[in-house]
């Protein structure tokens, strides 16, 4: 989910492991030469999701920690590609904790359907995250360091 700590945890984990760090939202913005919110405004949700899926499904990475946008979960080809090139980790955060962390969703470039609330988005995506996850780290009561330690234990690094 947006605000779960993918980028924050990912950067530190990459440093600890000596890996590269890839934020796919930045890769998309660089390729499209637009901010995520501009892509969503110009292309609509479905257009953005198609761009995101294509970029993620063709991402080349070796010895890297990849932090995809939360909506990457909707891209079947992207998720299959991620599973082929690495291990899919779900940073699980309670709805209450997530709601505390997030501010303006539109400003973050979050894909919301018309009339969809954060709770609706959380309920919809949580099922998909659990379906694809090979490792789940419950972030309840953990700071970034605690999340990284729990993740390193689970991946054996």
Looking at this protein, list some descriptive labels.
157 residues, mainly alpha, Rossmann fold, two-stranded parallel sheet, 7 helices, metal-binding, nucleotide-binding
Broad shape: globular
Distance between the termini: 24 Å
Low-confidence stretches are: none
User: What percent strand?
Assistant: 5-15%
Mean pLDDT: 90
CATH H-level homologous superfamily name: P-loop containing nucleotide triphosphate hydrolases
Rg measurement, Å: 15 Å
Task: Give a nutshell description of this structure.
The chain is mainly alpha-helical.
Structure report:
This protein is mostly helical. It has a single domain, classed as Rossmann fold (3-Layer(aba) Sandwich), CATH 3.40.50. The chain has seven helices and four strands. The protein has a two-stranded parallel ribbon. α1 packs across α7 and α3 crosses α4. The protein starts with 5 loop residues before the first helix and ends with a helix. The model has no long low-confidence stretch (mean pLDDT 90).
Task: Summarize the topology.
Elements lengths: L5 H12 L2 E4 H9 L3 H22 L6 E4 L8 H10 L3 E4 L2 H7 L16 H15 L2 E4 L5 H12 L2
Helix pairs in contact: 1-7, 2-3, 3-4
